[in-house]
Amino acid sequence: MQHETFRQFLDRLREHGELIDMKQPVDIRHIATLVDQSDKALMFHNVIGYSMPVMSGMIRTKERAIMSLGAKDFRDVEDKLANGIANPIKPKMLNTSPTMEVVMQGEDVDLFKIPIPMSSVFDGGPMITGGVVIARDPELGLNSGIYRFIVKEKNLTGIDIVTPNNMRLFAQRALERNEPLPISISIGTHPIEIAGSGYRAPLGVDEMAIAGGIRGAAVELAPCKTIDLPYIADAEIVLEAEILPTGWTWPEGRFGEFTRLMGGLHWNPLVRIKAICMRKDAIYYSLHMPWENTWLAAPTRYAAIRQALRTAGVTVKDINVTLGGCAFWHAVISIKKQPGEAKNALLAALSVMDLKHVVVVDDDIDVNDPMDVEWAIATRVQGDKDIIVIPNSRAKPLDPSLPQGAGIVPTGAKVGIDATIPEGIPKEHYERITYAYAETAKVDDYVKGKSDKPGKAAVKKEIVDLADKILALIEKEPLYYTDIAERFAQFEFRSVAQALGHLHATERLWQDPRGKMCVRGSKFAAKLPEKRGS
Fold first, then answer.
1. CB atoms < 10 A from the CB of 18, how many?
2. Which of 9, 11, 67 is nearest to 190 (CA)?
């Protein structure tokens, strides 16, 4: 698994019934909607007008995302990513790779020969979506990421870098020097390289080293032909290019975003393609929006949130970066809470990436059950005490609720909700309804004909004797009503209820603060609250 290639991963998807090979002629304009309708990844072998097959939907489901990293479950995915971040492995440089079997430069460069699909109805053009972009700043080192390139001419694209990130910083610094910024765009790589490049690493940290840490073996890179940069050696296609020093002055888009909305028109720099290099039998990979992007992004959020909470000294039970929040903006976190830690957890989590809304709950809440989370908010939150709003925070320009326009890099509000049990509230106030005999009385058994044996019906004298036995029992320890009924199950329930009724009528029955039956006046008995002045 450590050295699995892009093509070997596709073979593994086939073996598990997760990839369908489409051999019939298919119009490229139909690819996006067919992938959207399919619960499997699709390989289009005969795209009309092109000699190259198209692969799409590769990691469009949670199950395939788990498979892509060789993980057992989604938590294992998170652990693998965390290991890659904590234990990066420096990339290994090769002299060349099969990606250089076909090289087109100068006038031979023609993006229109590559089957780059349209996606949604309002797209501004064919968009390269799944390329791993590598750039170098003279002072800040290497950076890798996933960016979109809208095809404008046969050797000209835009690059969508409206969001503040390291690539935008590199391009801005090159613009200030009035120099182009060389970039390599590796298309058709193993998902591990895509996952590594999707992590927002600090400046000076090589995302391909993180990918190596995830893989457990160095990512293999090779040198480009026309620019002084490496590309991913396993790639099907590599575009050697330069971000031109035009600034954010050219219109680009629209395009369907991870928000599940159509994005607006963006203003971005231009990119000149200097060379197209590919395998003789290259496969074009089209990352399908939004769900492939979602399952790429979510694990990076989990790992970053867990690290932030670990640094804050908070013990985490579980995390859910929700799909309703587009796997970017919403997180629900359950913690093993100490006094005051819920607010610390909120502040730590809200510092992560572009998280917008965070809910912190106790460890009795299932973070993956929306009803359970909403119930915690309904029963444990007082808005004036438990909601934190942090204004003017880093935001993602793709958030449609923020101001939009050329040159605008908006800030927004982050909101934290402390939905843990408030300090000073007795825990018994939050004991959930649990039904007596739930472990032993099963409806399926009764549907199949099971019947219960009747208990003894007590006469009047026996009721008094039974009451005395109950009294002797609860003198030693308070018991819930249902526990008493179970201890005396040899009697009909009505007889037990009558005996308890006799104790109440003779003013010997009381309850402790948790509602258990006890003897009136005993050390266990609940005390009547003192009256307060009106």
1. 19
2. 9
Q: What is the pLDDT of residue 435?
A: 80
Q: How many Cα atoms sit within 13 Å of 268 on the Cβ side?
A: 26
CA distance 519 to 522: 6
Look at residue 256 in the predicted model and tell me its pLDDT. Answer: 67
Q: How many domains does the chain have?
A: 3
Amino acid in position 268? N
- Say if CB 333 and CB 309 are below 8 A apart: yes
Q: Shortest CA distance to 194 belongs to which of 301, 69, 72, 74?
A: 69
- Expressed as residue numbers, the domain containing 462 is 443-519
In the sheet that holds 387-394, the strands lie side by side as 316-321, 330-335, 357-362, 411-419, 387-394
CB–CB of 231/186 below 8 Å?
A: yes
Alpha-carbon gap, residue 290 to 260, rounded angstroms: 6
CATH of the domain at 393: 3.40.1670.10
Q: Are residues 58 and 95 in the same domain?
A: yes
The residue among 116, 106, 199 whose CA lies nearest residue 157 is 116
Q: Cα–Cα distance between 141 and 96 in angstroms, integer?
A: 22
Residues 421 and 449 in one domain: no
Q: Check whether residue 490 and residue 412 sit in a common domain.
A: no
Looking at residue 409, what is its pLDDT? Answer: 63
Instruction: Name the CA dihedral angle for 93, 95, 101, 102, rounded to a multiple of 10 degrees.
Output: 80
How many other β-carbons are positioned within 10 Å of the β-carbon of residue 150? 25
Show the tokens assigned to 13. Answer: 């998807």
Q: DSSP characters for 434-456?
A: --TTTTT--HHHHHTT--PPP-B
Q: 512-534 burial by CB neighbour count: b if 16+ within 10 A, else e?
A: beeebbbbeeeebbeeeeeeeee
> What average pLDDT values come out for the chain (534 residues) when binned by 10 residues?
82 95 94 90 95 92 84 79 87 95 96 90 83 94 91 93 86 96 97 83 84 91 97 97 93 70 78 97 90 73 87 92 81 91 93 90 94 94 94 77 64 92 83 82 90 83 92 94 91 92 94 92 87 55
